[in-house]
Design brief:
By secondary structure, this protein is α/β, with parallel strands linked by helices. The protein has a single domain, classed as Beta-carbonic Anhydrase, Chain A. The protein contains ten helices and five strands, in the order H-H-H-H-E-H-E-H-E-H-H-H-H-E-E. The protein has a five-stranded mixed sheet, with helices on both faces. Strand 1, helix 5 and strand 2 form a beta-alpha-beta unit. Helix 7 crosses helix 8. The two termini are 31 Å apart. The site of zinc ion has 7 residues, from helix 7.
Length: 252
């Protein structure tokens, strides 16, 4: 992983350079991965190779953003009601998408073993482009992955999915020393913990939901993502998964 263990060591020149690029918000920059500082030539080369891997023209989803959201939430209802259809999980589907993918939704989810988007939204192979990382944090590489899912593969919905009793958010609340580089996760969540302080209700639930809002905002700092939203091609939403009931609800 490429987390800055001591962001204050980042050179001012790099910070200024980066502020004119992908993410132009100074307060968001200290948590960014070092991959953010790749030069423009490298980024351009990478973009060309990613485009080459895109599905053939016309293969992208035909679902508009609201339809994609409706489809996801309908799948979650089937899951909660124990009426899963388990679509797109057979060999016919494997062959159908073997040469190109066209997921209708992209999801930034926590890596928690209990939060499995394909299961809780009742979808199958090639339907969802899922990025999973503890605390569903939008660091540079995650933003890049979601840019690829939306602008190249054509997903029309982008969802940040937080969940009940998230261990990464709990760690950010606890403020205790952590082994290895786990603290880098806490670092990315900390602004949400501070923003949720003093609010009525459960402390952890509030922090999880505030973290979802924070990561949505971070995704929207990508000009690639923001432009798609402005053009009506993409919707970015936050959501919360209830571990007890299996229900996903939107976080406004
Ligand atoms: Zn979690």
């Amino acid at each position: 992983m490429k987390f800055p263990t001591n962001p204050t060591k980042l050179k001012r020149r790099h910070l200024l350079q980066y502020s004119t690029g992908l993410i132009g918000v100074g307060s968001l920059m200290t948590w960014l991965g070092t991959g953010a500082f790749a030069n423009r030539a490298a980024a351009s080369t990478q973009k060309r190779s990613l485009l080459a891997a895109a599905p053939p023209s016309g293969a992208k989803t035909t679902l508009v953003p609201d339809q994609a959201l409706t489809e996801l939430m309908a799948g979650n209802r089937r899951f909660v009601e124990n009426k899963r259809q388990k679509p797109h999980q057979d060999f016919v589907r494997i062959r159908e998408v073997a040469q190109g993918q066209a997921p209708f939704a992209a999801i930034l989810s926590c890596a928690d073993s209990r939060v499995i988007p394909e299961v809780l939204f009742d979808r199958g192979i090639g339907d969802l482009f899922v990025v999973r990382v503890a605390g569903n944090i939008a660091i540079t590489e995650d933003i890049a992955s979601e840019e690829y899912a939306t602008s190249v593969l054509g997903a029309s919905l982008l969802m940040v999915l937080g969940h009940e009793r998230c261990g990464a958010v709990q760690a950010a609340l606890a403020r205790k020393p952590l082994p290895g580089v786990i603290e880098s996760l806490v670092f990315a969540i900390q602004p949400a913990v501070e923003a949720s302080e003093g609010k009525p209700g459960d402390r952890l639930t509030n922090a999880v939901q505030e973290n979802v809002r924070l990561q949505v905002r971070r995704l929207l700092t990508s000009s690639t993502i923001a432009q798609q939203v402005a053009a009506g091609k993409l919707k970015v939403v936050g959501a919360y998964y209830d571990l007890d009931t299996g229900t996903v609800s939107l976080v406004s």
